[in-house]
Each structure stands twice: as structure tokens, then as C-alpha cells.
Request: fold
Amino acid sequence: MTEVREETEMEATTGDTSADGVIDSSDVDIADFDLRRPRTRPFGWRFYLVSFLMVDIVAVGLLQWSVWTVEPLRGFGGFISKMWTSNEYQFLLNLLILAVVYLILIVLVNRFWIASVVFLSIVGFCAVADRFKVMVRYETIKPSDLGFLKSDAGSMLGFIPTGSSRVFMDAAIFFLAMIVIGYSLHQRDGRRGFIDLHGRAKTAVARVVLIVCPGLFLGLFTAGLANTGSWSYNFAQTLGDSPKLWDSVIDAQANGTLIGFQRFVNPKVMDEPANYSEKTMAQVAKRYTQAANEINQTRESNLEDSTVIMVLSESFSDPTRVPGLALNKDPMPNVRAIKSQTTSGLMLSAGYGGGTANMEFMALTGLSMANFDASLSSPYQQLIPKLGWTPTFNQLWNDGKDSEAFHPYESSMYSRSSNYKKFKFRHFWTLNEPDVIAHQSKIDSSPYVKDSDAYQSLLEKIDTSKSQFLSVLTMQNHMSYDNWYSNNEFQATSTTGDPLGLDETTQIQTYAKGVEYTDEATKAFLDQLDNIDKPITVIFYGDHLPGAYASASENTDNSVALHETDYFIWSNKASGSHGTKLPDSTTAYTSPNYFMAQAAEHMNAKVSPYLAFLTQLHDKVPAMEPPVVNKIQSWSRIPDGQALYLDKDGNRVDITQADKATRQLLEDYRLIQYDITAGKGYLKDLDFMSLPKTEALEDAEEAAKLPVGTKNAGEVPMVNGKLAAAAASQQEGQNTQNSAQ
Reply:
């Protein structure tokens, strides 16, 4: 009986037998024979299922470990427990997506334990790489980083942080443990092929189906995750996915590292315009080149002959304009006086309480969020890393070599560190190395660097021997407003009859005091610029209102008012445009995409075809933004409704009823924006972004065309080995002699 049982078990293990008891060799994989290994029974399916689940959980844990550099076990525990504490199931979502990847690998290899070791090895490698990037740059790996691995893999060692030997040691121990456990289980498991239907054809078909179907699900889910309205987006939202695109690490901690990665794989930028083509873009370029020539006939100065400073003042706006709110004193008398004396008005913001980088993006590029698909909620995170051509206004100053940016906060926010390199800023001064901002003082118990120090850091980098583009993004008035300032005399009250809540009152009063500090620091900053003997123009604007007005935001009629901030364009005494104030009829309302065109008009400076286009568009459509809502926009804006357009009086307009010229401009805007962000970049080679060449630049370019060796040490051109002046004199004498003859 024992012999019969062993023989039966051997048959079950090695394959089918024919009717006469002979093993059918056609159904047996030669690789399954190992004479040194005793025949063992295969594990039961429940054991496989439990093992599959455990490996999948470990994989999710490894990826979450990569973004929790402090107390990772506690972070992972919270990631799981919020299923019960707040009905958020991001853990299950990540578990499901990783399970699909794991299943595909198992079926592909067709060896459960080998596939498990390979799967955990791949996940472990990704987790270590992600952890290193978080430690060095405080941002997670994105799909755009994979191109870097392909093109510059040799530089990877530069991203390994100091003190990482412990991580390598733990990774090595983990990997060896997986090898030992996996090999041991593989040896004891009598099931050689995980999918084995006792027939090669059936087995092959089953494996193909179990690879294609999960693979199709994975591909479709990933392709649609970033696109609002897709089934995968809605499915992820149902399980609690809540994108936090301002910070990739926080997004990964809250929603899962894998989901955080997938949402950047395929964001929809915008629909292709029906008539987009190389010919169409050539016509657009020609149209606005002619417009630029017409504008430049009356402009006398050159934009790049002045230093331009762009100031994004965090959350700066006039609290006294908020409906239903009263303050006991004016928090911004200096800025109010400055606005009355120079080009100024109100800026329509795309955010309320957040979304800083979107306004910054529009100001630096001239592009509008209103043209993008609703799914593209954060260009800095979703778009810029993928672009090969990123034209920004700072590049007008010596191709960006004479541009620097300042931000007294973390360089990783909104991926600015990597994006600013693509924008060609020479330096980006932040709290992080290598370019550490010089001044970092704070006011009382505020956690943020004060504006006066941000200004001082910029002032020390002004070079009067050349023109520059300088950008500063302040942090002093960033949320939340937790009673930071001592001796705060501001008192906020309601004018509606319904009193403000205690928390709301505290936040508004703290914010108002911060605005007063900004007001004083900004006046002092401009006074110092007035003492510099170099033409300097400042573009100052608040990016959005603070998310502190809970009472006002309850009334939907206040929507536009809660999306209007203050801006001004000012020139110092050394500038030809000092004291210029363009008519309120053209400046009362704007949006950040128009700032550089407005600055050129304020400075009476010549423009590029692109700036000529923006100048014409601003005249027809003074302000435009994507749909705005009466809530903190967070970092995933609400796409419902139509883009918002304001006329010169600040009233909403139905753009579909606009005249033919306005509709043409808006159509051209979509073409231009599509060509830059999602199209083929036809405008790049059409000088669309180029300012008219100055006489000095033309002379320099002509000199550069001379053959090598035709210049002397003093950079004086030579002709046939003689100084040009001498050659010219000799030629003139010869001509005179010939004339006399």
C-alpha cells in the first residue's frame, strides 16, 4: 500500500498518466524534474492565498516606509487604521493595485515563490530609491525621473545621502532573508508550475488571459487616474483618494506611494485644437509678429535693459474688501498709497486659501489655467517635469543666466527645485542647500521667515553692473494664523449681524497683523530700490486670499470677491517709467498671465510677438481664470462650470457672446498654449518668444560671425591681418585716388 501511495503521489506531482499507466511526457516540463529533490506535495490554495496577501501587505508597507522617514511603523499603522477612524480606504486601493502587479508577475514567471522574491526585490529597490530621494530632496520619485535614470544613470550615486549605510545594511538583510525563505518554500512546494492545467495549450491560454486582463485593468486605471471624470479617478475617490499635489511626500503618506506615482503618469493637459498644425502656428506667429512691430514703433525702451523684480506676496490681499468684515484699523496704508500712484488694480486669483504655484506658473509663463483640462490641477507637478521646452519670462534676461529666485521655505514644495532648473534660473535661494537664503528671521512665534528678511536676501543679490530678473516668493502670511504676534491691536468684527466665530476671529486678526508687517516691509523695500542707480521695475501681487473667512465664504455671492487680490507695477527713480500710472480703465482688473505684458506697457518697452499677443488679449479679456468655488481650492480644483472671465469693470462676461476679434484671440491662445505644453513646439523656432534685438546685441552677433582669428586682443575686428579702421582708411585713400584719376 505504501508503494502504491508513493507512486500515486509521484504521478500527481509529475504529470498525467496514460490509460496503460505510462506518463505522458508531452504534458511535463523538463525543468520540473530534479532527481536530487524528493517528491513533495503541493501547498494548498489557502496557503497560497494567505501568502499572497502577506507578501502584498509587506510590499505596501515597504513603499509607505519610503516616505515616512520618522516613525515609519506608526505612519503605516495610521495608514491602515484610518479605514476605521475616518472611512478612508487608500490602504486597500494600494493593496489592490500592487496585487494586480504581483499577480501578473506570478503568472509570467509561473513559479509562485520565485515570483514573490522577485516582486519584493523590485518593490524593495523602489522603496530604497524613493526613501533616498525623500531624504535628499523631500520629494518622491515621479515618472519623469525614469527618463533621468535612462539618460544619466551614472549620476545616481550623487543622490545617495550620507549616513545611508544603515539603509543598505537593512536592505541587504531583508533581501537575503527573502532569498532563504523563498528558496526554502520553493523546495518544499510540490507544485512546480503555479498555473498547470495538464496541457500546454490550456496552460498557455490561461496564462495569457491572466496576464492580459489584469494588465489591461492596470493600464486603464493608471491612464485615467489623473483625469477627472474617468472611472479610475472616481473609483479612487470612492476609496478615499484625495490628491495633495502641493507636496508629493504628503500625498504619498496620505494616499499611498504607488497611487501618488500613478497619478503623474498620464495627466490630461488639454484637448488638441481642431486646426492645430505647423502651418496654423506659422500663421499665428506671423500675425503677432506684425502686431509686435506695430506696438514697438511707439515703444522707446528695452525690457532687458532694466532689472525686473517679481514679488509673489503670500496670501496678501486687502481684508477691508471682504464682504461682511470690519477691522478697527487699516492694515495696508502704505501699499494703498503706492497703488494710488502707480499702475495697479485687482488680480483675479485661481485659488482661495491655496494654489500658490498655479499663480506663480501663470505669471512666469503667460499661460492660463483656464485653458487646461480640469484634470491638470498643478502644472508644476503634473506638466513641467514632462516638458522639453519650457519658455519662461526670466529667460529674456540672458537666457536665464541673469535670473535668480528666492523662497524662504523648502525648495521641494511644488517640485520648484527641479522646475526652476528647467526654467533656467541661475540660483534658487531657499532654506535648503546648496543655495541657502541669507536671512531667516521670524516675527514673535510665527513659524515663517518674515517678509523683510526675504526682501533683504534679494536686495543683496542685485548687481548694478547688469540687468537681472529676480523673483521672490514670500512666506510670512502663509496659513494657518494661530495668534502668532504679541501686542496685536487688530480687532475683527462682523457687519452682517451674525458674529464671527472665535477661531475665525483669531485667524483674521493674526492675518491682519501679518498684512501690516508686509505693508511696512514692502514700503521699506521700495525705498531701498529708489536709492539704487539702476532702472528697476517691481511687479507685486498677492497670490490668493487666506482661507480664514469662514463666514464670508458661506455666501456664494461672495465668490469673485474672495478671489481678488491686490497688485501693482512700480519703477524706481532711476527708471524712465518712474511715476507712470497706466489708466485704471486698462489696469483695474487682471490675472497673473498678463503681468509681464503689463510691465512692458508700464515701462514703454518693446515686446516679443508673444507679449504683443498677451497685450492684445488683456485689452479684450482683462481677467480670466478656471472655475472658482466658494471653498478652499486645496490642490485639486473643482472642474464644474465654465472658466470665469471679467470685463474692465470687474463684471462676469459670457465669453461665447464676445465679438469676432476676441474669439480669434482666445482661439489663438489655446493654440499657443497647446503648442507649448502638449503639442509639437512649432513656435520654438519661429522667434515667437524673442524680444527685438537691440543695436548692441546686433553688433555683438555680427562680431561673433567673423572667422576665428580675425579679432585682436581688444576685440577690434581685423581685415586681412590689419585693423579694420586702418583697412578702411587705406580703402578710402585708394578710392580717393581712383576718383582723382
Q: What stands out?
A: Residues 502-530 form the longest helix (29 residues).
